[in-house]
Amino acid sequence: MSPQLKKGFLEYCILAVLERGDSYGYQIIKDLAAVIAMPESTLYPILKRLEKQGKVTCHNELADGRNRKYYHLTATGQADVVDFLQEQTEVERIYQFIREAMEHA
Amino acid sequence: MSPQLKKGFLEYCILAVLERGDSYGYQIIKDLAAVIAMPESTLYPILKRLEKQGKVTCHNELADGRNRKYYHLTATGQADVVDFLQEQTEVERIYQFIREAMEHA
DNA sequence: CTCCTCACTTTGTTATGCATAGTATAGCTT
DNA sequence: AAGCTATACTATGCATAACAAAGTGAGGAG
Fold it and tell me: pLDDT digit string (tens) for A53-101?
């Protein structure tokens, strides 16, 4: 997928994963792998940003003697995803515009 | 629309317009206005980039005593749009992934 | 004790949209 | 002729963003 387009989906994919329950970095990457690839150096900065924006909250937890940062979706973050989904019709319209232009040729 | 997502569509919208025939900056903006808003300070740099990448070619022409830069879509640029359209299924899959996550909650 | 997986951090580079402002011509109105 | 609007392109500078690459440290398997 075009890298530029991909950027538009990244953060919403992360928020969607958290909708299913609190999770942490490494797990999120694995959960997303099937739908969208994301290296650690991309995920963690986005999580930090989302936290600063109040779309997720963060709490540490111990698992197997290892520390994990669990992220939790807030109401703000949830509302964000809802808004995002509503944009899909606009996206479809753009695809249709491009497709029609191509057929015309 | 989320600005980040919008970025992913801009250049393909421009290429699509040129598919219908050679055009120039000001006209392209007007043609796109209905589907996607784009200020001049966004369009012209993109056109320059597309030219450097060989996706469009450029030739000057006089119209009403005014000089115009006409842009022409190349085969490379055309192939690009075709590729882009084929990514739509992937985009749909992402939307479905997010939608399912939201419903699950 | 070495290698692999897990889990997160840090640094630095590159790309990109766009607000803002500026330049310049044509044509219409008053 | 002065002023306004539309046309057409240019230039500067800022903010955002993804990601490669490398490093840190813990735990478990062989």
Answer: 999 999 999 888 788 999 999 999 999 999 999 999 999 999 999 999 9
Cβ of A1 near strand D (under 7 Å)? The reply is no
Kindly list the residues from chain B whose CB atom is less than 8 angstroms away from the CB atom of residue A31.
none
Domains within chain B, CATH numbers bracketed: 3-104 (1.10.10.10)
A100: nearest CA partner in chain B: B16
CA distances, B56 to each of A15, A97, B6, B25, B62 (Å): 38, 19, 21, 13, 19
- Tokens 């009403």, residue? B64
Shortest alpha-carbon distance between residue A101 and chain B (Å): 6
Containing H/E element for B69?
strand B66-73
Closest in A4, A8, A82 to B2, CB measured: A8
Residue B72 contacts strand D, CB under 7 A? no
* The model's pTM: 0.92
Question: Tens digit of pLDDT for each residue in B15-24?
Answer: 999 999 999 9
